[in-house]
TrEMBL record:
Biased composition range(s): Pro residues: 338-353
Gene3D superfamilies membership: Hypothetical protein af1432
GO terms under biological process: rRNA 3'-end processing
Protein name: HD domain-containing protein
Positions of the UniProt region annotated as Disordered: 325-382
Keyword terms of this UniProt record: Hydrolase
GO MF annotations in UniProt: hydrolase activity; nucleic acid binding
Keyword rRNA-binding: no
Species of provenance: Geobacter metallireducens
One Pfam family matching this protein: HD
CDD domains, sorted: HDc (cd00077), YhaM_OBF_like (cd04492)
Amino acid sequence: MNKVYVSSIRDRDQLESVFLVKDKIMAMAKNGKPYMTLKLMDKTGEIEGRVWDNVDELSAIFDRDDFIAIRCKASVYLGKMQLVISELARVPDDRVQLADFLPESDRPLAEMERELASLLASFTDPHLKALMDAFFGDPELMALYRIAPAAKGMHHVYLGGLLEHSLAVARLVDAIVPLYGGLNRDLLVAGALLHDVGKVREMTYQRSFDYTDEGKLLGHITIGVEMVQERIAAIPGFPAELAMLLKHMLLSHHGQYEYGSPKRPKTVEATILNYLDDLDSKINGIRTHIRKETENQSRWSSYHRLYDRYFYKESYCGADEYDEAAEAEAEGASSAPVPQPATSPEPPAPQAPQPRREEQKKGFHNNPFEKLQGKNLDLFNQ
């Protein structure tokens, strides 16, 4: 059974494929007959599935966060793609390639790790440098920090999202600092790299992204401040005021009480961190919303519920649409004389078909899930 990705499913497709069950809800129709609603996912997106027949029998086969192979028909209902499932079977974990089912950062992990190492080497404050070494020199923490998503649904919702987002905020810090005098650059970069560090314990991301019990009860802000305090306590002579200022940045980086901030920003550095964090989060959220709409030919995006608006797409240019080599070639061609053909030009040679977008995408290098090898799945005849 070949993998059919969510992004390639079209209306009236008849398909067989494997998906990860992100959610499973049992309900009762108006006629008193039970049915089951599933939220299915792979690395390209999510789609709703419905089971109308043999519901009790099929429900007993699998649970949330299991992999299932399905036979189904795709149809658009109320403007939304849906899979009507006729057959399903649970798939053992060792029969799938987990990297096919979890979205991942477009940036190669090795590239982001080099950028992080460069940032860590740039610290001049000895106390903050020691704190950064305590965090990012910890192999167990780094194993989580490098693959964790930055959120469950708002922004950077993919493996590597936390690292990608933290580095982006740090780059914004280095762009801002030269514009204003008197800023503590090391404190700001430390805040950029640590403001969401609690998410390594707030969320689960070995399967579908969700919250841990600790995450639901405490939240990443409280967890992150505890992690910072634990490591500061182990550094001799760490200044109490510096510790207070850094912890205040973590406590206030959401900006307002209604956004989950225990405190509002009350220092210049904390205010800057709040706005830069919000800026990068919103840019990523908007771009992700637009990129998902590959079939939408309108100049406007669909309605974004969280931002309460539509987005005009014509000025948008994604990173994967920017072809530096083509631009350089075009510039060179514009400056060179145009040769005049002596004879009629020959027709161009046929071009090899280009790989699909998901095949072009760079892999998430060192992804710990990639060690599992996918196998051919013919589960309905077993």
